[in-house]
Specification:
By secondary structure, the chain is α/β, with parallel strands linked by helices. The chain has 3 domains: 19-322, Polyphosphate kinase middle domain (polyphosphate kinase like, 2-Layer Sandwich), CATH 3.30.1840; 342-512, Endonuclease Chain A (Endonuclease, Chain A), CATH 3.30.870.10; 515-701, Endonuclease Chain A (Endonuclease, Chain A). The protein is built from 20 helices and 27 strands. Strands 14, 18, 19, 20, 21, 23, 24, 25, 26 and 27 form a 10-stranded mixed beta sheet that branches. Strand 11 (376-383), helix 12 (391-401) and strand 12 (405-410) form a beta-alpha-beta unit. Helix 3 runs antiparallel to helix 4 (88-120) and helix 18 (641-656) runs antiparallel to helix 19 (684-696). The longest helix has 33 residues, at 88-120. The radius of gyration is 28 Å and the shape is globular.
């Protein structure tokens, strides 16, 4: 059987367009999976609000970057098809009805499901003053005059006042107005709903909020106070999404160029216009004419624009019973007791951490301790995304002030975090750190920290490598894994990484790490092809890989070749997946599942059976061309037997998940994972939290050391 498959492998180069799904349509399928969690009545109500808000935020970025990029290609007559055989124009033609239909479903969930459910829990979203009592109107009137009116800036448009700049993603109220002294001529006017104020206005109540109104509805009611000499003919909300993507291939001053591009984002080409369903035709025409957008770019919403306000609603006090409480808080890492010397702990054994189930504190404390330790000589770190008040940044600054040699690569091109990273980079420079502002033409997406310490037996290098960012906030929301080690070969490679970043010094060979953009892709292809060769020779072979996205054509073709040779391949892919499963002679041995849960699945884990000589890797990289060819990424092996067992446990438990997992079908759609016979509910994220709690408190479970979950049987 395998020999027959092998013959097919030799004849088929697996490049046919029909073997691939389009990347953008695959992303939309991912956002549908998030939307399904908003629709899922098994989830607590306020968690469903959060999921719907996430779909809105996701869609914003999709239009600003992906749709904008496709439009640029069409404008430049770029006609090369993607791996699925679709030209940019064909992709836009497919995405137009698909995105409109998705928005329609978003508002169906909001209007028909969430709003009635909120009302049933005693929370009303008031949209009209017709539903307001006299006492409530007095309060709203006073609130508007004292808190809102002073912030508003009404903008009229006439021969002396051109159409104002409508900033990207801001919420605005457009109006057709007529001077009171005239009967026929009308003008356009607009006012921006101030983002500095809360979007939700809470009516006075003795206990928890029971009635709220959105800020734009309040402003709309009092529009006549903003245009005293005019009659308001019609008014309605609108919102513009602009092209926010930019690339920098060459720049004499990278910092200056990125600062300039950030400002340009607010003025980019209009990609999408969101309007309320009942917007007056003349008003819509005036806005469309001013911003120059096609009819396909107009999205009508049967509800409030910009559903990200639901995140603000999630924060309303008094509704804790409607939130998820099944997940335990981050637990301590058993290998690093609270009062222990972290360097001593790392010297004893490599330490693997699974966030957010285990706390991120050891990573922060590692940098903090290094900053004040007299024996630490140097700290080197890459930073891609950090939090607004980052304790790691503060520790690095303190280290420089204490005379340590501190080198930090701050990636200025981290999309939508550019301004934040620029501010941190300048602060670190002032503190005395040597700051590298990323590399022109590449993004540094790797997550690595190197601490050089003088000890009794000589210089020792301590290394932290991870799948996620050095962001203490997102470390509570994203699932990631990190490794502490002081093994010499890891330290040598870590030094080589930073020498490469700071001085373009490429090592002749790597001992443990695989680094993109020059070596990592070839390493992945070698590992996949080795499993294929093992299968053809009748040896044991298997691949399990977990990541965010899979769309690199070379990697996918290698997976198809391995599958055709008989390799069993299980992929856990949260987002984009261009692989087609179930194609006879091509992908019959490939399964793909996506987990959308309380935490954002972000870790990248790779397992290769290798004829019984198993290999385990963690990485910062997905299987995407941008990661493998245009970014600095790192993959690193995990070699300690106990740590490898923990990684396999993570993979196996996610493959058993039947609560938050969706399975990719042959049609390209995803369906909820089914329970196997005799299997109960398996929520992998919930189980990881409980496991971390038992590991941190072994006395409570009556065992010592780490506890492992046995594989669930049929």
């Amino acid at each position: 059987m395998k020999e027959k498959s092998g013959k097919k492998t030799e004849k088929n180069n697996f490049s046919a367009h029909e073997y691939f799904w389009n990347r953008e349509l695959s992303w939309l399928e991912f956002n549908k999976r998030v939307l399904s969690e908003a629709r899922n009545e098994q989830n607590p109500l306020f968690e469903r609000l959060k999921f719907l808000a996430i779909t809105s935020s996701n869609l914003d970025e999709f239009f600003m970057v992906r749709i904008a990029s496709l439009k640029d290609m069409v404008d430049e007559d770029y006609e090369k098809p993607d791996i699925a055989g679709m030209t940019p124009k064909a992709q836009l033609e497919a995405l137009d009805p698909a995105t409109h239909e998705f928005v329609k479903k978003q508002y169906q969930v909001y209007r028909d499901s969430l709003i009635p459910a909120l009302f049933g829990e005693g929370l009303s979203v008031v949209t009209s003053f017709e539903d307001v009592t006299e006492k409530e109107e007095e309060y709203l009137d006073r609130f508007f005059e004292e808190n809102v009116y002073p912030v508003l800036t009404p903008m009229a448009v006439d021969s002396s006042r051109p159409f104002p700049l409508i900033r990207n993603k801001t919420l605005n109220i457009g109006a057709i107005v007529r001077k009171k002294s005239e009967e026929e001529e009308t003008e356009f006017a607009t006012v921006q709903v101030p983002g500095v104020l809360p979007r939700i206005v809470v009516f006075p109540s003795k206990e928890r909020a029971s009635r709220v109104m959105l800020l734009e509805d309040l402003i709309s009611h009092y529009m006549d106070r903003l245009f005293l000499n005019y009659d308001i003919v019609s008014s309605s909300c609108f919102r513009i999404t602009r092209d926010a993507d930019f690339s920098i291939d060459e720049a004499e001053d990278l910092l200056h160029e990125i600062e300039k591009q950030i400002k340009q984002r607010q003025r980019g080409q209009a990609i999408r216009l969101e309007v309320e369903n009942d917007m007056d035709g003349d008003l819509l025409s005036a806005i469309r004419s001013a911003i120059g957008i096609e009819d396909s770019g107009v999205f009508r919403a049967d509800g409030p624009l910009d559903l990200t306000f639901l995140m603000e609603m999630y924060s309303l006090k008094g509704f804790e019973n409607l939130k998820e409480h099944s997940y335990v808080s981050p637990q301590s890492v058993p290998e690093i007791p609270e009062s222990a010397d972290i360097f001593e702990c790392i010297r004893e054994n490599d330490i693997l951490m699974h966030h957010p189930y285990e706390t991120f504190d050891p990573v922060v404390n590692f940098v903090r301790r290094s900053a004040v330790d007299e024996d630490v000589l140097a700290i080197k770190q890459t930073l891609y995304r950090v939090s607004g008040n980052s304790p790691i940044i503060a520790a690095l600054a303190q280290a420089a002030e204490n005379g340590k040699q501190v080198t930090v690569l701050v990636e200025l091109k981290a999309r939508f975090d550019e301004q934040n990273n620029i501010e941190w980079a300048k602060m670190l420079e002032k503190a005395g750190c040597h700051v590298i502002y990323g590399l022109v033409g590449l993004k540094t997406h790797s997550k690595i920290t190197l601490v050089v310490r003088r000890e009794e037996d000589g210089i020792r290098r301590y290394v932290h490598l991870a799948t996620g960012n050095y962001n203490d906030k997102t470390a509570r929301l994203y699932t990631d894994m990190g490794l502490f080690t002081c093994k010499e070969e890891y330290g040598e490679d870590a030094t080589a990484v930073f020498n490469m970043l700071s001085g373009y010094s490429e090592p002749r060979a790597w001992k443990k790490l695989s680094v993109a953009p020059l070596w990592l892709k070839d390493r992945f292809l070698f590992l996949i092809n080795r499993e294929r060769e093992n299968a053809l020779k009748g040896r044991s072979s298997r691949i399990i890989a977990k990541m965010n996205s899979v769309c690199d054509p070379d990697v996918i073709k290698a997976l198809y070749a391995a599958s055709a040779a008989g390799v069993r391949i299980d992929l856990i892919v949260r987002g984009i997946c261009c692989i087609k499963t179930g194609i006879p002679g091509v992908s019959e041995n490939i399964s793909v599942r996506s987990i959308v849960g309380n935490f954002l699945e972000h870790s990248r884990i790779f397992y290769f059976e290798n004829d019984g000589m198993d290999e385990y890797y963690l990485a910062s990289s997905d299987w995407m061309p941008r990661n493998l060819e245009r970014r600095v990424e790192i993959m690193f092996p995990v070699e300690d037997p106990e740590l490898r067992s923990r990684i396999m446990e993570v993979l196996e438990l996610e493959l058993q998940d039947n609560t938050k997992a969706h399975i990719l079908t042959r049609t390209g759609k995803y369906v909820k994972a089914a329970r196997r016979k005799g299997q109960g509910d398996v929520n992998s994220q919930l189980e990881f939290g409980l496991l971390a709690k038992r590991n941190a408190n072994p006395s409570e479970s009556g065992t010592a050391g780490r506890v492992f979950i046995p594989e669930t049987g049929e």
